[in-house]
Design brief:
Blueprint: H1 2-15, E1 26-27, H2 43-46, E2 74-87, E3 90-97, E4 115-123, E5 131-144, E6 149-161
Length: 165
């Protein structure tokens, strides 16, 4: 009888709603990505992009360093999509930025405020003004694109329109 009760209990757990289970990711904010004691430069202090200067990286402020606290962890980070690679089905690689217009209308933020995201499942976004939550494996990764130097990478397991906790 005990064995049947145990199997029934395990089966019942599979039927529980996901919100009843423990959170499967760490919620991060953009301020979490900056080394302790450093400040984040507000986008309005950066000014508008000089579109005559084709090298956007020349307008990117230097990064004060990266944090490794969440390397290899599953995290959720909100932000805005700046597409890098896409198919007809949607975007498959993008820079996740903390505010609308970063890397497009204002100079890129420091590398510790940019996350390079890749996804196996293309995400069909509605444009640069759509906020999203991205959940996936997080880590430091020094990389350069034509838009900016990037300090972090995230392999997305789930991308969805932003909604607050």
């Amino acid at each position: 009888m005990k064995r049947r009760s145990l199997l029934a209990g395990i089966g019942a757990c599979a039927l529980l709603p996901r919100h009843g289970l423990a959170k499967e990711y760490i919620d991060l904010n953009w301020s979490d990505l900056v080394p302790e004691g450093d400040t984040i430069m507000p986008p309005m202090l950066q000014g508008l992009i000089d579109h005559d200067d084709t090298n956007l990286m020349s307008q990117q402020p230097p990064s004060s360093g990266l944090r490794t606290d969440w390397n290899g962890q599953i995290v959720r980070l909100p932000g805005f999509i700046v597409p890098i690679d896409y198919t007809g089905a949607g975007v498959t690689a993008f820079i996740l930025v903390p505010f609308v217009g970063a890397c497009v209308h204002v100079p890129p933020p420091p590398a510790n405020q940019l996350v390079f995201v890749t996804t196996a499942e293309p995400y069909e976004n509605t444009g640069l003004f759509e906020a999203v939550n991205v959940v996936g494996m997080f880590g430091t990764a020094s990389m350069t694109t034509q838009l900016a130097e990037i300090g972090y990478a995230l392999s997305a397991e789930n991308i969805e329109p932003f909604r607050a906790n």
